[in-house]
Design goal:
The chain is an all-alpha fold. The protein is about 65% helix and about 0% strand.
């Protein structure tokens, strides 16, 4: 074989090996590109999430501030209303009755008719204690064997 044939065979074998190596390298480069793209997307998603959380916390702080202001103004209004009520309420209880004199008289008469007063008689003095404190025993709690009266023997 001539050197030309050996050179041609070497060239063909080198081209085949170069093609296989290129395919192998290009697939690993493509996977690296995909991974880099996924990392970039994940970083963007994380950044957006951080911004959303920061915005939420800021809005929550604003709402709490508004609630505090509203609560303070409500407390001031309550204090003012209390002061006004204290000023408007008379301190004497006899200034104005709830019912008119005629109505009070009619209510007293109705109550007297419905619930007549009972005359209290003097309680009679008894020298005997109540039955639950009696002197003699009743035999109810005696420790004896009792006979059964309704048995079929």
């Amino acid at each position: 074989m001539s050197s030309l044939a050996i050179g041609l065979i070497t060239f063909i074998i080198g081209a085949i090996l170069g093609y296989v190596a290129n395919r192998f390298m290009s697939s690993s480069i493509n996977s690296e590109k995909k991974l880099a793209e996924q990392v970039t997307q994940s970083e963007l998603a994380l950044s957006q999430y951080k911004q959303d959380v920061a915005q939420h916390l800021e809005q929550s702080a604003d709402l709490l501030t508004q609630m505090n202001i509203t609560c303070q103004s409500a407390m001031q209004q309550m204090e003012q209303s209390t002061q006004l009520l204290k000023q408007a309420t008379p301190t004497e209880s006899t200034t104005m009755p709830f019912f008119a004199a005629e109505t009070q008289q009619q209510l007293a008469e109705t109550a007297a008719k419905r619930h007549p007063k009972k005359q209290l008689s003097e309680p009679s003095i008894t020298s005997q204690p109540p039955l639950d404190y009696s002197d003699g025993s009743s035999g109810l709690f005696v420790d004896q064997t009792q006979s059964v009266t309704n048995s079929d023997t």
